[in-house]
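Intended use. Records such as the Class I SAM-dependent methyltransferase entry shown here are meant for training and evaluating sequence-to-structure methods. They are not intended to support clinical decisions.
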Amino acid sequence: MADHYYSKRPETAHERRSLETVLRGRSYRFVSDSGVFSKQGIDYGSRVLIEAMQLPAQASVLDVGCGYGPIGLAAATLVPDGHVTMVDINERAVQLAVENAERNGIKNVTIKQSDLFDEVRHERFDVVLTNPPIRAGKETVHTIFELAYEHLNEGGALWVVIQKKQGAPSASAKIESLFGYVEEVTKDKGYRILKAEKKP
């Protein structure tokens, strides 16, 4: 089977590249590589989510499917008194995320290789962020929403970016079934930012 960005150990030959970008007014330097999601540059959906997400300064945050780190590291900058846990099944992505945290001087993060929520199964968070792995299939994406609900503190929020043509309507319906409602915070070039809070 060919490597996917949700492979545990990509075997694709390394092709590291350096990226410089500005997110929420701050400059970042990232390294990406082959075998990880959006290796050429930060994908538009992640950018839309990063610009839209509203995070309390002391929040405990989980980034599910962190890739080489742009969403989680941007989140860590937005929660200076909080902490961000970043997880991805892809070993190479996790190694890059660790490197990128160091490269950008971001210390309030924990980065783990994890199949979905396996390595954080006993933890709870104020915010769950995800740009879900659409190619892994609808069942996997909907499992992320279910587990996010279980792992959120009361009053905590799930933030999701998803393209309309890649399942936004069914994602919205699934989230609504779990949380009782879902808000479309913004939309941009076919990307939808969905938010739902876990009611006490």
